[in-house]
Amino acid sequence: MILSKKNIFPFIFSAVVMLLIAGCIHDDFDEPPLSDIPVGTVLTISELRDIYENEPILFEDDYSVYATVTMDDKSGNIYRNAFIQDETGAINLRLQAPGAVYQGDSVRIYLKGTIMDSYMQMLQLDNVNVDRNIIKKANGKTVEPQLLSISDIGSQHQARLIKLEGVQFIASDAGEPFADSENLMNVNRMLEDCDGNQIIVRTSGYANFADELTPELNGSVIAILSQFRSDFQLYIRSLSEVDMNDPRCGDDDNGTDPGEAVTFIDEDFQSYPDYAVINQNGWMSYAEVGGRDWIVRTHQGNHYAQATAYNSSDPVNIMWMITPPIDLDAMSNPVFEFESAQAFYTHDGFSLHISGNFNGSDVTGATWEPLAARLAGEQDPSNTWIHSGYIDLSAYSGIVHISWRYEAEEPLGNTGSFRVDNVKLYEDN
Ligand SMILES: [Ca+2]
């Protein structure tokens, strides 16, 4: 008789029904064994998954699967688990002990002694012993995520590394901790696309990013797809794969209103939420190269504008933050000042400019000349606000814009951060 699935606790090797796999696939002895562990019949992950027919399978013969590890348990988001993938599919490994197999490892899984079964509709290879069942061949391998939309996701994508674009945490789950690290509890946060399709992001209270807050903006997420009964769940590998800095669905920031030219500015960025793109009160951010914008970050209650290429997936990032139009003809002694700071200094990629012919939208078509100011740089301590000095604009006339430009090349390691706060324009009486 067959034990019902609910009686099989996934961690425990129990007296499951042993089904001998018929030798329906030809033996492959083309390459010599990499170790004393025999190779036997080589299966793709797709062939492995196809063997399963609703009953647990104990592998008793020599079978091997070659794959790349796409997620390990180092981040704490999963425990005694790993995910592997090849060109044909992916599967969840349940390990007898934590660790010892890492993301990027190229491995051969020797199936003898492992058990394949479905747990809450998630197909798993259980009882995997790192010494007996896993032969490492290489490390540092990368698997590209498969780009999917939430509405496309199905059981056929189980255990795969996927990427979703144009998604955001639903309003009640945005800006909330990923999980409950205090009570070490898993938390489900709901991700949605602009059509209202939703999927769960499940995070362990043991994850090293459990305390971090979910982004409030829209963007992309790379994660492993899991399934629990009829629910699909995403497991994030690293927060560096959560890149959400675009306006939320429906919040179009592209229609920047050039607005009235101003003769007074006092911008402290306190009205922006964390991670918001600079786009209010006639200000704008423009991503000239790469997808990064100037965004607001917060520290101890202070909100400020920040440009950084840290963890950027773009090889080059150039981004501009630009003031509203300034009407210098309506001012007699215009003075401009602000504060800047650097953090994780890597390079001098930060500069100040002024333009008399920027039309409010064509940033690279305008003529920007350098505007002298004291900018935070290598000589300054990190995270320390440096006053720009009092910048006399009386040599300029007409309608002008002032911009801060940030440029970084990730392959050169030039990813340090620059920040701006307390921007002021006023009449010096
Ligand atoms: Ca501020």
Q: What is the CATH topology classification name of the largest domain? A: Jelly Rolls
Radius of gyration: 27 Å
Low-confidence stretches: 1-33, 252-258
Total domain modules: 3
What overall geometry do the principal axes of the alpha carbons give?
elongated
**Kindly, what is the distance between the CA atoms of the first and last residues, rounded to a whole number of angstroms?**
94 Å
Number of beta strands? 29
The proportion of residues in beta strands is 35-45%
CATH architecture classification name of the largest domain: Sandwich
CATH class of the largest domain: Mainly Beta
Number of helices: 2
Q: Level of helix content? A: under 10%
Structural class: mainly beta
Q: Which molecules are bound besides the chains?
A: calcium ion
Identify the quaternary structure here.
single chain
Mean pLDDT figure: 89
The biggest sheet, with number of strands, parallel, antiparallel or mixed sense and barrel status, is: 9 strands, mixed
